[in-house]
Amino acid sequence: MAKPRTRYIIGVDLGGTNIVVGAMPEDGSRELGVRSEPTRPEGGAEPVVDRIVSLISEVISHVEKSDGAERQDFLGVGVGAPGPLDRERGVVVVAPNLGWRDFPLRDAIFDRINLPVTLDNDANCATVGEWWRGAARNARNVVGITIGTGIGGGIVIDGQLYHGSSDVAGEIGHTTIDSTGRYCRCGNYGCLEAYASGPAIALRAREALERDEVSALHKMVKGNLDLLTAATVYEAAHRGDALALEVVRDTAKFLGTGIANLLNTLNPDVVVITGGVTRAGDRLFEPLRAEVKRRAFRPAVAACRIVPGALDGTAGVVGAVATFKQQKLGTV
Amino acid sequence: MAKPRTRYIIGVDLGGTNIVVGAMPEDGSRELGVRSEPTRPEGGAEPVVDRIVSLISEVISHVEKSDGAERQDFLGVGVGAPGPLDRERGVVVVAPNLGWRDFPLRDAIFDRINLPVTLDNDANCATVGEWWRGAARNARNVVGITIGTGIGGGIVIDGQLYHGSSDVAGEIGHTTIDSTGRYCRCGNYGCLEAYASGPAIALRAREALERDEVSALHKMVKGNLDLLTAATVYEAAHRGDALALEVVRDTAKFLGTGIANLLNTLNPDVVVITGGVTRAGDRLFEPLRAEVKRRAFRPAVAACRIVPGALDGTAGVVGAVATFKQQKLGTV
User: Is residue A188 part of a domain?
Assistant: First the structure.
């Protein structure tokens, strides 16, 4: 009897900075043909869709070659996109990082590739990815936090992705930690994202530099503070720069405050943090855990591991595959 | 054939200020013999247990008389107590409002009345009560907020009370809305409870009075600011006192900030607020909803009703009955 053919699912992780696309066999055992391109949202939505579609085609070709797959072996495409979104209609409702409003992303992709497409929030996907194959494997209640251009989040409850009543659940970046604090792109004041997203980290470093001349950061950006990014800050902290270390410690405090809120609200067994900020390592995680311990109830702290993601850049792709599987095949 | 005998469940709502006890027939159709006494926690745990047990006995006697019930018709007692608690062991882990630590409340009551006893968080009970028989009836995802001596909360997800990984879920009063803000009894800074609990409302009014002499509140407490309570503030606001109105508006803003966090995190279809603060009515709810609208994502706001509880003081008792039913009989 012939061995049943392996079936593949494609995952798309659309972020404000990069698009990452890859494929997995249905059982999630391997990541295949993962590739990435800058999103360049400033050119409008259609060119972004073009880039997604051509990455999908490349991934399909790759898997056809590497695994001897045929076109009919591809079950479809799971897409993770910045939210809030309307899963039912496949529409991105508001995505400040992309400058999109009410964009029918699912059908825009489907029209071009003619495979079933599902849409879910990018941070939901990253969370499910870490739960399915990463650092939160086998956990029951999980909060995922994705830190990049923005801060997103996802919630797994009793092993099920929780979407809430209108697909907005998990928008952790836009919870207030300081009601009269920093202005956030979403229009409010004091959102976690306004303190701890990549651009917010760079902005806080820049403000500190404008006050205090003594830092390796000046030299690292050749005196042009416009070039400062969160990555530069981690790099300087790694080299022991005092100002950069302070920015990282403050980031840990802000994140710790937001995460303590999640512990007291949701009491998860794992909080998994993904995105570039995790590159700061223990320098970030140690003061972060200390702040959570300070602010959250003892039994909530005792029940919870706070860990960096294990999938290193592909959590969103893996999770997009998992959410496709859950929506179309009913199980992960 | 004889009609099957009605069976009864007793509900106990133990708060920092009052103990409320009542009974319901198993189907939750009526509240019977509800009575209340001050908690007086300053005398220690044992006298509080005495008061609970004697209220239970009174309620049993009342139902025996009013409904012709017999002792064997009582299935047991559901208890709602301030948390965090350990449901498995029936222990109140920490209750700052009672001054308790690791107190085995469930067994202390069981030892005295010899009926099955279940323990759940008081705010969980109030939420389930409003979901079962009150303002959140038929909702799918519900956040309940109980405002009294402290601020508690409960979460219903897909029609099930959500406890989290160690029974701490829903501790909404101890989520931070201002990370460098007011000191909270829990030891942290900027908790919602430090701004909008009954005592916090009284404190903010007092601070305003100490700055500003013109208010009816002075006269209402006969110049003794120690007598000021949240109830006095609502009363003065009701009479149109400008300072009291400002305190109520600020309360609405603080609560709105905390509730917006819950909308962006949990995206519920109902937020139900119970406790004395709801007496301030639209004067509180209108600016509160406006603040939530300002801070939460549009689709989360659109999906959610924010309403006062409908059970007026007995949500905790009704919910304690419901949680007993769920834990012991497997259904509500």
Answer: yes
Q: Residue A160 forms beta bridges with which residues?
A: A157
> Are residues B268 and A164, on separate chains, in Cβ contact within 8 Å?
yes
Specify the 3-state DSSP secondary structure of A191.
strand
My answer on whether A17 and A152 are in the same domain is no
Residues A100 and A183 in one domain: no
Contact between residue A132 and residue A322 where contact means Cβ atoms under 8 Å apart: yes
CATH number at A244 reads 3.30.420.40
Of B157, B167, B257, the CB nearest to A179: B257
Structural domains in chain A (count) = 2
CA-closest candidate to residue B128, choices B160, B105, B98: B160
A109: exposed, middle or buried (Cβ count in 10 Å: 0-12, 13-18, 19+): buried
With a cut of 50, which residues of chain A have pLDDT below it?
none
Q: ∠ at Cα A213 (A209, A215), nearest 5°?
A: 75
> Quick check: A93 and B298 CB within 8 A?
yes
Q: In chain A, what residues touch B153 (CB-CB under 8 Å)?
A: 265
Write the pLDDT tens digit of every residue in A178-223.
999 999 988 999 999 999 999 999 999 999 999 877 899 999 999 9
Peptide bond into B116 cis (omega under 30): no
> Per the structure block, which two tokens stand in for B146?
């109980």
Residues of A in contact with B187 (CB under 8 A): 294
Q: CA geometry: angle at A153 spanning B306 and B163, to 5°?
A: 60
d(Cα A119, Cα A121) in Å, to the nearest integer?
Answer: 7
Distance CA A137, CA B213 (A): 60
Is the Cβ pair B254, A179 closer than 8 Å?
yes
Yes or no, beta carbons of A141 and B164 under 8 Å apart: yes
Measure Cα distances from B67 to A73, B14, B73, B325 in Å: 68, 25, 11, 20
pTM summary value: 0.91
Say how many Å lie between the first and final Cα of chain A, rounded.
27
Residues B159 and B294 occupy one common structural domain: yes
CB contact under 8 A, B176 and A295: yes
Rounded-to-integer distance, Cα A305 and Cα A136, Å: 9
Phi-psi domain of B243 (left: phi exceeds 0; alpha: psi -120 through 50; beta: other): alpha
Bridge partners (DSSP) of residue A73 are none
Which of A176, A257, A266 is nearest residue B295 as measured by Cβ atoms?
Answer: A176
Residues B122 and B153 in one domain: no
- Which residues of chain A are within 8 Å of residue B171 when distances are taken between CB atoms? 264-265, 267, 297, 300
Distance of alpha carbon A175 from alpha carbon A254, whole angstroms: 12
- Test A157 with B155 for CB contact under 8 angstroms: no
Give pLDDT, residue A332.
Answer: 76
